[in-house]
Amino acid sequence: MSRLLRLVVQAALISATVANASSQIAHRGTSPFTCPALDTSTTCPLPQPKLPHPPNQTPPQHASQQENEQPPPSPPPSSSASEPKPSESPSPWSRGPICRRAGHSEYCAFTHSSFSSGTGISLITTPSRILLLGSQPPLNLTIHSTPESQPPANPQAPPYKDVPIPGKGIGLVATEPIRAGRLVMAATPAVMVDDKAFRGLRKEDLAMLLGQAIVSLPAEHSGRFLNLSADARAADEGQGQLDLVWKIFSTNAFRTPVVGIGAGVEGGEKIEGWEKEMDFQSTFVEVSRLNHACSPNLGYYFDSATLSHRVYAVKDILPGEELTISYVDVLQPSTTRNSLLSKTWSFTCTCPRCMLEPHLLEESNSRSQSILSLRRELDDYSTSASPQKAELLITLYELEGLQVRIYEAYYRAALEWNGVGDSGRAVRYARMCLDKGLLLRGPNRPFVDNMKELVADPTGHWSWRFRLKNAEKEESAGSNGSS
């Protein structure tokens, strides 16, 4: 089925390519990333900047600085023509034959077929951004590559398998016991779409670029993408298949911010052209097989250093148990959760937390409301809230089966105990927060740095005795008012 879909999408793209040939020729001369646009496998030269730059040397300009500049001319040939220079090595990127404009920006589909051990990846973005992204790890492993910047490989024998799930289509179930804290999968995307393109392009234009992006992937990866479910099925032929590709993407996309492109800083000075963060919407064929639950047994985060979704078990999982993640904010009451699920994904949740008997569901919703109320109170650092309320918050998370978010409750408990001068309990909860938070959010989060600072020096941390100071202020204000 996926092979047939791939052929139909290719046919739709050929038809669209012919229809848009004249506009493509007109655009070709204005793009800062030029190459012959003959078919979806056209290989385009991608400049490879050398980083870091030697001291006192000006960094090279990137196409993002001047959108309409052509790449700099190639250096004159050396006396030894038999030894090609590093910059002359062929680029791993190819560009689709059609680009589309939104505002002043032109978006194209770029494919790196050998990425992640031949799995491949496609990006829909501007030529200037692909120059920037493609010049650095993990998309260019020839420049300053480290083990930490290389795309991860999933285990040879993953602890799960695809099976039909009644009422849900295809899902994943455990094939062996999985302990809490275990890395279940680390997957790279099939396609990443620049958020500006996702929001700025017309639907039919984005569908065209997505079609190019998917058929340009290695056949195995594109086939797995086309086998994913969509919110609604498109027509069987022509443009309808491109519409299906768009629906598969939009149904299964995750927000994947790519942060810290390059180092951004060299020698203490900002490098022109680097971007602190680029927002993308991405689809992962493996992760997209995970169905939703409101108290899921898996948690995940996107690691922009390796462009991978890292998925961890948050509970012990038995063989035959379905693997689940959450699509919505699990702290909300059931009516709010299901309203969003119905609006966005066209289904009503039937997980155990949502299918409780009426009196038990009422209690569950009451606990959810209490969680939201306690969080607001604890996050107001101007009051004299108590660590006992933070302990209650932890209990409510546990009763609702919210291990996927438990680090948030540990974080607040650490601050509250430190706020009343109990460094022992504060460090204990800070350690517990780090244990879960690093698994579920990754290392580059402000709360992680905050907890590390508390562990290192509780009495020097900003939260030391801050609740007692607030109570003293309130008591002083009350005394002055009564006098």
TrEMBL record:
Pfam families hit by this protein: SET
Query: Sorted alphabetically, which keywords does the UniProt record give?
Result: Signal
User: Where does the record place Pro residues bias?
Assistant: 46-58
* Positions with biased composition (Low complexity): 59-69, 79-94
Q: Where is the SET domain?
A: 158-328
Q: What CDD domains does this protein's entry cite?
A: SET_SMYD (cd20071)
From which residue to which does the signal peptide run?
Answer: 1-19
Chain residue ranges for the region called Disordered: 40-97
User: Which PROSITE patterns does this chain map to?
Assistant: SET
InterPro entries, per database record: SET_dom, SET_dom_sf, SET_domain_protein, TPR-like_helical_dom_sf
The name this protein carries in UniProt is SET domain-containing protein
Q: What is the species of this protein?
A: Cercophora newfieldiana
